[in-house]
Amino acid sequence: MELRQLEAFVAVATELHFGRAAGKLHMGQPTVSDLIRRLEREMGTKLMTRTTRRVALTSAGSELLGRAKVILDEVGSACAAVHRLAAGQAGTVRLGITPPVAPALAPHLATALRNAAPDVDLVARRLWLPDLDRALTDGTVDVAITCGAFAEPPGVVGEVFCGEPLQVALRPDHPLTERDSVALSDLAGETFGLHSAALFPAWSRAHLQALEAAGVAPAMVELADTDLFARRWAEQNEVDWILTTASMAATGLRTPTRPVRPAQVVPYTLQWNPSRAANAAVGRFVHLALTADVPAGWVTLPGHLRHRR
Q: CATH top-level class for 92-308?
């Protein structure tokens, strides 16, 4: 039994007219008649009676009609599902993110993907940088997003595609709180609190890169606060200031923050391994991340396809 035979049978059984069924199928009427005869031979029974004036279903034909419609519907659904997967309109994307990405960027991209491809399932996992590198290399995650810019492992493609402006967090009585923005050079003589590189390697690396870019080398101490958002950093008396971002500070940081002048950003890098992409939805997500609007107040960077250089 062929699908063409079932399609011809359903068309004739629905129209009860060979000519109209042939037109609906864009076939010649002799071809439709031949498909029905072959189907009846394979079934071993008449499925319809034909006269010069009318076509009528036999009891066997009536029984087959309902079942044939179900079969054709299932085949159509299966084809549609396969096409959607092939086009990246369905499937699962496993996203690995370092914790600093989570507050603003991860939900922003999840919403953009849901609007663009609602049948793609995004499964996000928070991973520390060493675990994220391993997961991307061995294919446990399809896409990784982390902060900072660094060399990719073999086979991995990376794009520094967006960034969030840095802010300085100061003690409430610090004289620089009277300014609208603060230059890192103005704080070079004061003690900087740096997140633990063991706990937050990507975040601390991004801060060190910012200090290097600004050409300042302040005295540093490791923050005793093991909270990523450093909401209790001011309780550490020897620390005068820290670096943060608006999305990080919005989680409950109680000390004043000011934008860094001249503006600096924490860069975010998107990485993926094309040879290990589980399905076309991975490529769909990568393209969306590199073309979608960034969160309010953020900036695009050279890896973003809409970045204006």
A: alpha beta
For the residues of 113-164, what is the DSSP string, one character each? HHHH-TTEEEEEEE--HHHHHHHHHHTS-SEEEEES--PPPTT-EEEEEEEE
User: Tens place of pLDDT for every residue, the chain, 309 residues?
Assistant: 788 888 888 888 888 888 888 888 888 989 988 988 998 898 899 988 887 778 889 888 888 888 888 887 777 766 665 565 555 567 889 999 988 887 789 899 999 999 988 888 999 998 888 888 888 888 889 999 988 777 777 788 889 999 999 999 999 999 999 999 999 999 999 999 999 998 888 899 889 989 999 999 999 999 998 888 999 999 999 999 999 999 999 988 999 999 999 999 999 999 988 877 767 888 889 889 999 999 999 999 999 988 876
* pTM assigned to the model: 0.70
Task: Tell me the domain boundaries of the chain.
Answer: 3-86, 92-308
Does the domain at 3-86 match CATH 1.10.357.10? Answer given as no
Extract long-range pairs of 84-88: CB within 8 Å, 24+ residues apart. Answer: 84/119, 85/279, 85/280, 85/281, 86/280, 87/280, 88/117, 88/120, 88/279, 88/280, 88/281, 88/282, 88/283, 88/284
